[in-house]
């Protein structure tokens, strides 16, 4: 049996074809689970870092060297920025030393909790570590220890999927077809794609799969659409997920196998809208645009998927920021509160796709504090991503040089009316077909996995 797995930025799912029908794997009461993991004690808390006796001299030497380098390049850099970078360098060395202690990933991850339960465990325990959307980190420049940790997390998520599927199907599952975006999020260019696939392959094998292959997610969505199309026709497949947006041009329908002509992708998706909505509607309550707190502090707080930025945010001091903003920022630094805020942002984004207004209570920050958001505000926050989507759709239209018969939309963000309108504007003569937003890709993966043998 070959399992199709959608290892998603926001949610993960799996399915298999049995007796000619796609059968989803159930995770508790649901067909998917949030791609989040909570674990205690794996990564050292940078908040524990303090300069040791004698390190002031080392710190000053780093500042002097950086200042000299800046002067050699004809630059004049502020002393505060030089000191901050020097402290980060010393802290990074401290972290690497602490993480080099002989502790295996299996020992560290044995008490991990996954999905929505991970958030609840993190909130309840009020300590430990929460990693959300580990897929978004696979293509970034990773220190060897960080890579080992991310690989370990991916391994346990994939093992959770494999064991759940094996129990449900009554037989060991050892073969998997994993979906992959056209372009992973990356800080190292094309090498990020290679690294991400290498990590996922290593994790899948460590999770107990004997064979693992990959399929681009829009091609998988095309497989799903093909299975429901009686007549052959040309289609554009638009898959808008949490971390990436992927498009394929395919010939689907009829008795012949689907033919994928070409695929395009950008490493942008729903999480980018989350970030923009958080900065525009939520962070002003914490002083963004009002106080002298640098903008990047608010970005660090909002990007819960980025462990490094989250640690950096917790390092800042807001003792001298005027109230109520200083006390609110300090409350946001408390364990779990950036994750709580992000969950409220997600809820607002989902709600505003169908309603004009939404209220987000923030009692974990301050009693009676509430954020009022609107559909118009969401549209403004989504403007940046929407522009990138329109550019991608325009590129697709130019590349194919013809009008498709249909535009098939899938992925969690494809429910949003403003994104559907962007696709309609790009291909005005094509009929728009709305697939299963959450499960179109995984159903296609299951069909492709079954058809490959």
Automatic annotation (TrEMBL):
It comes from the Bacteria. GO terms for molecular function: ATP binding; ATP-dependent protein folding chaperone. It holds the Pfam family HSP70. Keywords: ATP-binding, Nucleotide-binding, Stress response. This is Heat shock protein Hsp70. The keyword ATP-binding applies.
């Amino acid at each position: 049996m070959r399992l199709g797995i959608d290892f998603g930025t926001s949610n993960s799912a799996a399915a298999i074809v049995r007796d000619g029908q796609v059968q989803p794997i159930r995770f508790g009461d649901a067909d998917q689970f949030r791609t989040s993991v909570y674990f205690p004690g794996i990564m050292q808390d940078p908040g524990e870092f303090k300069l040791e006796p004698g390190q002031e001299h080392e710190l000053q030497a780093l500042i002097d060297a950086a200042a000299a380098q800046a002067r050699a390049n004809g630059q004049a850099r502020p002393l505060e920025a030089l000191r901050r970078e020097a402290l980060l360098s010393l802290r990074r060395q401290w972290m690497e030393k602490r993480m080099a202690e002989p502790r295996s990933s299996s020992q560290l991850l044995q008490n991990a909790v996954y999905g929505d339960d991970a958030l609840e465990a993190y909130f309840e325990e009020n300590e430990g570590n929460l990693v959300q959307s580990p897929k978004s980190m696979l293509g970034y420049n990773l220190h060897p220890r960080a890579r080992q940790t991310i690989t370990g997390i991916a391994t346990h998520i994939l093992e959770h999927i494999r064991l759940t599927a094996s129990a449900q199907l009554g037989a060991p599952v050892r073969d998997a077809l994993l979906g992959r975006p056209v372009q992973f999020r990356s800080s190292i260019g094309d090498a990020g794609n290679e690294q991400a696939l290498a990590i996922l392959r290593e994790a899948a094998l460590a999770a107990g799969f004997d064979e693992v292959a990959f399929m681009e997610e829009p091609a998988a969505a095309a497989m799903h659409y093909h299975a429901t199309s009686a007549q052959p026709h040309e289609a554009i497949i638009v898959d808008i997920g949490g971390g990436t947006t992927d498009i394929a041009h395919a010939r689907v329908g009829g008795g012949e196998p689907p033919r994928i002509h070409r695929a395009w992708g950008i490493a942008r998706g729903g999480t980018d809208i989350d970030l923009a909505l958080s900065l525009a509607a939520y962070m002003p309550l914490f002083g963004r645009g009002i106080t002298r707190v640098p903008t990047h502090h608010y970005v660090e707080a909002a990007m819960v998927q980025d462990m490094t930025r989250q640690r950096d945010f917790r390092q800042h001091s807001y003792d001298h920021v005027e109230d109520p903003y200083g006390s609110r920022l300090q409350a946001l630094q408390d364990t779990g509160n950036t994750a709580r805020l992000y969950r409220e942002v997600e809820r607002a984004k989902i709600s505003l796709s169908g309603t004009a207004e939404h209220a987000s209570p923030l009692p974990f920050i301050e009693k009676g504090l509430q954020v009022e958001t609107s559909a118009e505000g969401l549209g403004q926050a989504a403007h940046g991503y929407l522009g990138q989507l329109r550019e991608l759709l325009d590129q697709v239209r130019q590349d194919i040089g013809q009008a498709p018969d249909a535009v098939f939309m899938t992925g969690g963000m494809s429910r949003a009316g403003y994104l559907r309108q962007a696709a309609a504007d790009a291909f005005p003569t094509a009929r728009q077909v709305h697939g299963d937003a959450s499960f179109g890709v995984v159903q296609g993966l299951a069909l492709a996995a079954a058809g490959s043998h």
